[in-house]
Amino acid sequence: MKRPGLIALTVLLFTTAALRDAVDDWIDATQLPLTLAETSTEIRDRSGTLLRAYTVGNGIWRLAPQLDKVDAGYLRMLVRFEDKRFWNHSGVDLLAMLRAGAQAVWHGRAVSGGSTLTMQVARLVEDGSTGKWAGKLRQIRLALALERQLSKRQILTLYLTHAPYGGNLEGIRAASLAWFGKEPQRLTQGQAALLVALPQSPESRRPDRHPTAARAARNRVLARTAQREILPQNADETAARSPLPDRMRPFPRLAPHLADRVRTAALDQLKIDLTLQAPVQTVLQELVGDAARQAGSRVSAALVAANHRTGEIIASVGSPAYDADQGRQGYVDMTQAIRSPGSTLKPLIYGLAMDQGLVHPDTLIHDGPVRFGRYAPRNFDGQFRGDIRIRDALQQSLNIPVVKLTHELGPARVMAALDRSGAQAALPGGAPGLAIALGGVGISLQDLVQLYAGLAQGGQGPLLHVRKDAPPQSGQRMMSDVAAWQVSNILSGLTPPPGAPAGVLAYKTGTSYGHRDAWAIGYDGQHVIGVWMGRADGTPVPGAFGADLAAPLLFEAFGRLKHGFDPLSPPPPATLIPGSAALPQPLQRFRSRNAHFTQSEDAPALLYPPDGAQFDLAGGPVTMKLRGGVGPYLVLANGRPLVSEQYNTEFDIPNPGAGFSTLVVVDRKGRSDRVTIRLN
């Protein structure tokens, strides 16, 4: 009798072990669906705030959540309501399944479910059904496999990623953003209960379409969790009276043009962090939209704001409306469009002329008829002002003086300085001509902001960037700090728009030929903002001027950006700040080198140091040797005077400092010569 019983027990144990091993092998062979990793691409600001998200396949909103950024009260409510033994079972809760089966037999219908959260995840990721035993068996297998391959936190994260919440919403973040307009980090008890109830019947409980069913389902969750002491006393009654959302809110669409660009450049990244500041982007985006609507039905507008100390772009508005207003062609990103800059390049030209020793802000220049070959520039009003200070010529944005300076510098030098600043410009064709001073070149709004960031930073600023992970880079020096400050000082003296404070911004306006583009770009001690207004198709806006259309928007943008203005930089120590009468004679009046004489043997020539020389002087003086010219001589290094009233042709000048220096000698008749050297 004992022997057959022992044999039977052995067979039973062996069969049980074999069955267990077979089940283990069956579970281990389960392959997890590939959809586990398919979530929306997110563009975020510097603090992680969502700027824009993109749908996944079939137009589904599915944003990847993080457990530590989901409301803890909601998580407790979810687990207690759906799967109270979630943290202890291995994927299948036998007690819950037995209870559900017994209730179904007793009532003749399904009263409660036996599915665990893990089984629900299995159904969601495979998009399978639960109505047939084959589907239920498949879910059990996948649930057991999930528990073996993933942690409980990972499984819960999958549920929070794939659970349906009505329409094309999947996951807790998409649901919270669409129904409540916020991330799920802090939810009210009523909001949390609705989000627990929705996945069980997401379409029939949609609060915007079936508010009665949604309220009943939410209140059942509140009542049950109150019974289980998840909620404080009477909290369920208060939450049950809270209103339901009556519509789906649109997902954030901040800086949509910029978001499209960075996403296209990094298609393999699901989360891209930018330097933008979402609150600033929001208010400036609204401001640009309001300004464009007030300006006319087809007028578009764009804005770029940056921190010129760090190079971080903090706001980028490509148009008043991304795709809602076809008349404005809002889909065109006007921060990147190549347009004529009008007069906005004039500060660069004046700064280069000061740097080369051609002029000083108090130098007199003649504003009168002039012709360069077949090119005869005219001022915008057709008037001439005679002798006028450089400062006033720039502030009044006169055309003739700046063309004269461009002729002296050479258009190629202007284009080279523009390139050194980090900005890129496109020429309509061939070599640059004198017309570049008046807008005869193509440039984008963002590149103009790059140029002005360099001016704000003393002639050499950081390269603008929008990726938070981008390493900081500096542009090349385009002019000396003295020349850059002198330009800034002149621009800060411009009369502001009516009602705006004076002397707080160094800014310049511009209007392109035919009133096609209205510009205003300015900076204070920390930020630079550029504004463009016009029509995206390039047709004229009759009567539009930068000073009238764009400048008020520029000042309003600074007012929305922050409270107050950061003070502009003080003058560098070497800055020469006299009146016109106190200037060295060659700088008292601008004369073209070819106006009254031609370069001859009598013109000054720098014999020493030779152009391109490199010296190790350890801070000592630099010896200069001249030939020709008429004293007294003026010597400038990088635009700042070092020696004046010098009659000798061999003398020492103070060491201008380590690095590259451009030395300019100017004689009494305004003739000059220059060399570039490097001191170590």
Write up this protein.
The protein is of the alpha+beta class and 680 residues long. Among the domains are: 1-30; 63-240, Biosynthetic peptidoglycan transglycosylase-like (Penicillin binding protein transpeptidase fold); 593-679, Immunoglobulins (Immunoglobulin-like). Helices cover 35% and strands 15% of the residues. A five-stranded antiparallel sheet has the order 7-6-14-13-12, with helices on both faces. Strands 16-22-21-18-19 form a five-stranded mixed sheet, with no helix packed on it. A three-stranded mixed sheet has the order 2-1-5, covered by helices on one side. Helix 4 packs across helix 5 (133-149) and helix 4 crosses helix 6 (152-162). The longest helix is centred in the N-terminal third of the chain and has 27 residues, at 2-28. The radius of gyration is 36 Å and the shape is elongated. The chain starts with a helix and ends with a strand. Mean pLDDT is 88; it is low at 596-600.
CATH superfamily of the domain at 63-240: Biosynthetic peptidoglycan transglycosylase-like
Question: How many β strands by DSSP?
Answer: 22
CATH topology of the domain at 63-240: Penicillin binding protein transpeptidase fold
Quaternary status: single chain
Structural class: alpha+beta
Instruction: Tell me the distance between the termini.
Output: 106 Å
**Total of helices:** 20
Helix content class: 25-40%
The portion of residues forming beta strands comes to 15-25%
**Poorly predicted ranges (pLDDT <50, ≥5 residues)?**
596-600
Radius of gyration: 36 Å
Report the biggest beta sheet as strand number plus sense, adding barrel if it closes.
Answer: 5 strands, antiparallel
The 3D shape can be described as elongated
How confident overall, as mean pLDDT? Answer: 88
CATH class of the domain at 63-240: Mainly Alpha
